[in-house]
Write a structure and sequence with these properties.
heterodimer; A: mainly alpha; 14 helices; about 75% helix; globular; B: mainly alpha
């Protein structure tokens, strides 16, 4: 039974909360400065090639807030932050929190599904490669990982689209909802059907690093004395791998997987763009291209919290779940 | 079965491992140099010829042609050399940043914790998002992307160098140097820099694949190079509109070419690491 020192845990979480707060303030400040520095005129970026009169331009400028001073903009944004809406999205015309909630839930399912796929497949391949070290299976898996690590995610997505959607015609080309249907009338199976291809593409990002990590860990376990002793007792090979190998490497592997939230979020942006999946990634690209400052700031903050949560869980596993690492500070 | 090591079998069996590593580096480097120079020399302003638009790959046009009848092979080559150039500049800048930060971290305890905090900060926002923000901040285009990629890829190298500098700083000859009255700058220049120089060099090469991939990703999303430049990211995002029509060659070959370039740089980086750091050579 895992015995957790409550006082210690509270102190740890409090410390982490302060860290997160400082982190968010600095990130928000840097993002704000970056956007303000930008030589790109948001009004022009929004209008594109359209020709408008001077008065209309002034109205647009007011809507976008380009006529305000830097101080006024910072104050305005902080006020909306305090009221909990994080401002008004300029391109979706609803409060930012609403946009993020809606888009993030769509992306979250995509990320979780692919995260689980990559964990299972990556760990499985790693165990096989490590157990069969030096054989052709190991070499094949190693080569596969090596190539995957050098492949741009969005290109894998494009290739999948070409093979499975265009050539074989198994999956639709894009969108999470069939054309001509409202998003809340979609059945579960329709939704799942459209999730398969993006989820597989996104999961590929995480497989390579997890596989290589698991493989290296298992190989070091195989060199250990207890492994040799288990072999001397005459246990079956896969039995030893199961009882001594997987038990030892499962927790570090899960930790690594939680630390991959950063790449997962980045991958989502690309995958959503390729598959036209209407989630947080598409919102990010739209906000960036059309200078929707409040939305972009909101997304940056949400992504930082998301990545921070992954790291926090990894830390917690590291500190409190793994009995070997709990050590002496857990009196 | 004879116990011959793997590197003494097959072709080139007269060479030892070190020579083979050097040979691999030389060949890979040559291929990359050829790609880069060819792409650099080629005039990218291809004539549009609508008579041969959307042609699948043939002997005349090995990568096919696009919707304006432009040869995709030449566009891909040009795009690759553009990517290599931006990647090179970005990785050099990022290793300069990493080196400076690693040395700043070694000054005192406060500097060290500041640098650690900075590393945490940059690692806590998704890279792509950060690159997008910096690229917007500097105004898109080649310069913006280069800087954005450079300012996001120093993190890993800084971690490695910081640990290395810390270790050298505790060595006896550094302590001796201090007793002799040498100042910190002198020690950094004469004792530490020569020892970490090879690591900086290898680190730069290992950043390269990531730099190229991130550059093309950001360009693909529309935050990078401007649409009239034939960057790989631009070519791929253009090809998306023609995928449904079955024009697979527009997306397949440029992406595959990019993959090969990234792999080649990876191979060079790994082999150089083995040469520089023989303790890991048997992995």
């Amino acid at each position: 039974m895992v015995k957790i020192n409550n006082k210690k845990l509270a102190k740890f979480l409090g410390f982490k909360a302060i860290r997160l707060l400082i982190l968010l303030i600095v990130i928000a400040a840097i993002s704000f400065i970056m956007i303000q520095l930008s030589p790109i005129d948001p009004v022009k970026a929004y209008l594109g090639q359209r020709i408008v009169s001077q008065e209309q331009l002034a109205i647009m400028g007011e809507y976008w807030g380009t006529n305000l001073s830097l101080g006024e903009r910072v104050m305005g944004w902080l006020q909306t932050l305090a009221s909990g809406s994080m401002g008004f999205s300029l391109i979706y015309r609803v409060p930012v929190t609403e946009v993020i909630m809606q888009k993030f839930t769509a992306s979250f399912t995509l990320m979780i599904v692919s995260w689980i796929i990559s964990a299972v497949v990556g760990f499985g391949l790693g165990v096989i490669a490590g157990a069969k070290e030096g054989t052709w299976i190991d070499k094949a898996i190693k080569t596969y990982c090596y190539i995957l690590q050098s492949t741009p995610t969005f290109w894998i997505g494009l290739v999948f689209l070409m093979v499975f959607s265009v050539y074989l015609g198994w999956f639709p080309i894009g969108l999470s909802v069939p054309i001509g249907q409202l998003s809340d009338t979609v059945t579960f199976w329709q939704w799942l059907y459209r999730l398969i291809l993006p989820a597989i593409t996104l999961s590929i990002v995480g497989i390579a690093s997890l596989t290589m990590y698991t493989r290296d860990k298992l190989i070091s376990v195989k060199k250990s004395d207890y492994f040799l002793f288990a072999q001397a007792r005459g246990e079956s090979f896969w039995g030893i791998i199961k009882n001594h190998g997987i038990r030892n490497i499962l927790l570090p592997a899960i930790t690594i997987q939680f630390l991959s939230f950063n790449e997962l979020f980045g991958g989502t942006i690309l995958v959503e763009q390729v598959f036209a999946y209407p989630g947080i990634g598409q919102a990010t690209v739209a906000a960036g291209l059309r200078s929707d400052v409040p939305l972009l700031l909101g997304i940056v903050i949400i992504s930082a919290i998301f990545v921070f949560m992954g790291n926090l869980i990894a830390d917690l596993i590291y500190k409190y779940v793994d009995p070997r690492l709990r050590g002496d500070d857990d009196e | 079965m004879s116990e011959m090591p793997w590197y003494n079998r097959g072709l080139f069996s007269s060479l030892n491992l070190r020579q083979k590593t050097l040979l691999t580096i030389a060949i890979t480097g040559l291929v990359l140099a050829i790609i880069f120079i060819c792409g650099y020399m080629i005039d990218a302003n291809l004539p549009t010829n609508f008579a041969i638009k959307m042609k699948p790959p043939s002997f005349e046009h090995p990568f096919g042609t696009d919707w304006m009848g432009r040869d995709m092979f030449i566009r891909t080559l040009k795009g690759l050399s553009l990517s290599i150039m931006i990647g090179l500049a970005a990785s050099i800048i990022s290793s300069i940043i990493a080196t400076i930060l690693a040395f700043v971290a070694s000054v005192n305890k406060y500097c060290d914790s500041f640098i650690s905090w900075l590393i945490d900060l940059f690692a806590s926002v998704p890279h792509i998002l950060l690159i997008m923000m910096i690229s917007i901040g500097l105004g898109k285009g080649a310069f913006g992307v280069m800087m954005a990629v450079a300012f996001t890829h120093w993190v890993n190298l800084t971690r490695v160098l910081r640990a290395e500098v810390l270790q050298i700083n505790t060595s006896e000859y550094v302590a001796l140097s201090k007793r002799f009255g040498k100042n910190k700058l002198w020690i950094a220049k004469e004792h530490i820099l020569p020892l970490v120089l090879s690591q900086i060099f290898v680190g730069t090469l290992l950043v390269f694949p990531h730099a190229i991939m991130h550059e093309s990703s950001v360009t693909f999303l529309g935050f990078g190079l401007s649409p009239h430049e034939p960057a790989i990211g631009i070519i791929l995002s253009e090809s998306m509109s023609y995928l449904a029509m079955g024009a697979w060659w527009l997306a397949f070959f440029p992406g595959a070419a990019l993959l090969i370039v990234v792999l080649l740089f990876d191979i060079i980086g790994d082999n150089l690491k083995r040469l520089v750091d023989p303790s890991q050579a048997n992995d």
